[in-house]
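ERR on first pass: missing label on line 2. Operator R.T. fixed the label and resubmitted. Corrected input:
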Amino acid sequence: DTAVSQTPKYLVTQMGNDKSIKCEQNLGHDTMYWYKQDSKKFLKIMFSYNNKELIINETVPNRFSPKSPDKAHLNLHINSLELGDSAVYFCASSFRGANEQYFGPGTRLTVT
Amino acid sequence: AQSVTQLDSHVSVSEGTPVLLRCNYSSSYSPSLFWYVQHPNKGLQLLLKYTSAATLVKGINGFEAEFKKSETSFHLTKPSAHMSDAAEYFCVVSPNRDDKIIFGKGTRLHILP
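pass 2 clean. output:
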């Protein structure tokens, strides 16, 4: 009965490849988020969707493209991976305006 | 503009002694404030939240935090540290006007035996 799940948990790939990370929540929330956590543990929001509509789009390279097929899923596709994309990516969900977010376990992406 | 500052990047305490993790915030609006904990190689777990009700907020695992508007602080405390408290702790501010929340840079709590 995992609340927010992400797949895969670990992803090792080479520069230039394209990869996707999937996120699903079963909490009935209407808003989902992607965060990037760098090697210094700093968390930065990347995107947010509310009912499949993009509502937050921070300054992120356009190689990153989120896709929300429905309000329970938010996937992150990354094209032409670079070394600097190596990080832990967290998905989160909430009710819009509730502010309290529930986080997935993270996906550790390593680009070699 | 909203911001959050965690005053210590690392805190070390002995097991059984009190814990204090400091957080100051800046917000143009009346904010909601949160503390999250991240154990090694794990996701983030909500410890507690302040949303303009009682200023002293109790959370899980014996943690609590006090909202002090005059000091713009929301420090996290625990009377007696346990080895399992060793983790990264994040103070978070939400300005209640949009959907963004802002994370502090985190405080790594070390528990000495």
